[in-house]
Design goal:
Layout lengths: L5 E2 L2 E9 L6 H12 L10 H17 L9 H9 L6 H17 L3 E9 L4 H10 L4 E6 L6 H15 L7 E4 L7 H14 L7 E7 L3 H6 L25 H16 L6 E6 L12 H11 L4 E5 L8 H17 L4 E4 L7 H14 L4 E2 L4
Parallel strand pairs: 1-10, 2-3, 2-4, 4-5, 6-7, 6-8, 8-9
The structure holds ligand L6N33NVT and fe (ii) ion (2 copies).
GO biological process, one term: heme biosynthetic process
Protein name: Ferrochelatase
Family: Belongs to the ferrochelatase family.
Length: 365
């Protein structure tokens, strides 16, 4: 087999979604303004209308800059989330990047980027190019593919690279939703919490996505939300369906832990707007479990996220917990996120090196 020679270092770009620079209304407004004007995120508004609506109304209201009904808005939630190290999403991304850099050694240059706000993909890619890397592997910190997340990251990387005279080898990682290394870390984290038999039910709660975006990922046009249980198996027709990938992640963790059928549910959270999103909604599942099934103690996985963030720590850990208690439940125990867990760092290094089949040569070899 012929092996392509590389001279110099290989670049790795770890990318997460992004987070505000500070828990202030201005910074949150700036973040949401950039995030929600991405046509891959809000994909059903014409460009100019989206800019005007988001920057003039949605972001200011949601951030709490203007909000007569719910003072504080998302800014208040970010203030609850904020730690002495700042936003956990960014902080753990920095730790992961430093650890991967150390583990991979001198032949690699590793950079962290955020799709929205700082550090930008543009600055990180430029740094890699300035280092003279022979390749760039883009590794989004989203196990499942969605156009709104991974697709947007890849588009932005390609936009930045398209301005370069020389474009190095580029590897875009689409997803790793059932990679055994990832699955093992989630499963081990759940085992660490204690015996699984103590939970009345186990929830796998993923970030939601509008159903129209799920349908767009169905190339056949006749599978998603048309075939009963369309996401219960994954194959050629729905391999890039976010919901199908989420269900595949659940099945893999369930198999690793040996969970009995009926003891767990896959659901989706963080719905925004009035359209239908991926179902069932986590909040509805919680209500049903508390009111109709008498569930008191739940274990909740968040396998769409690799670090603590607003959607896990606050939305599930505080808001859903309060609702669950009001319906008669007692406690929702979050499976700790992957954060800076050494097993997660090992998993990322493993997934990256697996893809680096090509030999690294230094000048003169
Ligand atoms: C994990 C994958 C994610 C998908 C898919 C996703 C889709 C998606 N998100 C919104 C709107 C918002 N998301 C927000 C926060 C947020 N989203 C993700 C990940 C995914 N989003 C993360 C990791 C975070 C947390 C960031 C942090 O700083 O902690 C927010 C901001 C918070 C809020 O105001 O609620 C919004 C808004 C849409 C519309 C969407 C798909 C179309
Ligand atoms: Fe989101
Ligand atoms: Fe589906």
């Amino acid at each position: 087999m012929y092996v392509q020679q590389h001279f110099g270092k290989q670049g790795i770009l770890l990318v997460n979604l992004g987070t505000p620079d500070a828990p202030t209304p201005r910074a949150v407004n700036r973040y949401l303004g950039e995030f929600l004007t991405d046509p891959r995120v809000i994909d059903n508004l014409p460009g100019l209308a989206q800019q005007v609506l988001v920057r003039g109304i949605i972001a200011p209201i949601r951030s709490g800059i203007v909000n007569p009904f719910k003072p504080g808005g998302s800014t208040k939630l970010y203030q609850e989330l904020w730690t002495e190290n700042g936003s956990p999403l960014k902080y753990y991304g920095e730790i992961l990047t430093a650890a991967v850099t150390e583990r991979l050694g001198d032949e690699y240059v590793v950079r962290l980027a955020m799709r929205y706000q700082q550090p930008s993909i543009e600055s990180a890619v430029r740094e890699l190019i300035a280092e003279g890397v022979s390749s760039i592997t883009v590794f989004p910190l989203f196990p499942q593919y969605a156009s709104a997340t991974t697709g947007s990251v890849h588009q932005e990387v390609m936009r930045v690279l398209s301005k370069e005279q020389t474009i190095p080898n580029v590897h875009l990682v689409n997803s790793y939703y059932e990679h055994p290394l990832l699955i093992k870390v989630f499963a081990d984290n759940a085992r660490d919490v204690g015996p699984l038999s103590q939970w009345d039910h186990i929830i796998f709660s993923y970030h939601g996505l509008p159903q129209r975006q799920l349908k767009k990922a169905d190339n056949s046009g006749c599978h998603c939300y048309k075939v009963e249980g369309c996401c219960n198996r994954i194959g050629q027709v729905n391999q890039f369906c976010y919901s199908a990938q989420c269900h595949a992640t659940t099945r893999a963790i369930v198999a690793e832990l040996g969970l009995p059928e009926g003891s767990y549910t896959t659901s989706f959270q963080s719905r925004l707007g009035f359209d239908d999103w991926a179902k069932p909604y986590t909040i509805d599942v919680l209500e049903d479990l508390a009111k109709n099934k008498g569930a008191k103690k739940l274990l909740c996985f968040s396998p769409a996220f690799v670090a603590d963030c607003l959607e896990t720590t606050i939305e599930i850990g505080v808001e859903y917990q309060e609702e669950f208690e009001a319906w008669g439940g007692e406690h929702i125990q979050l499976v700790p996120s992957l954060n800076d867990d050494p097993r997660w760092i090992d998993a990322v290094v493993g997934m990256l090196t697996e893809r680096m089949g090509e030999k690294v040569l230094t000048e003169g070899q």
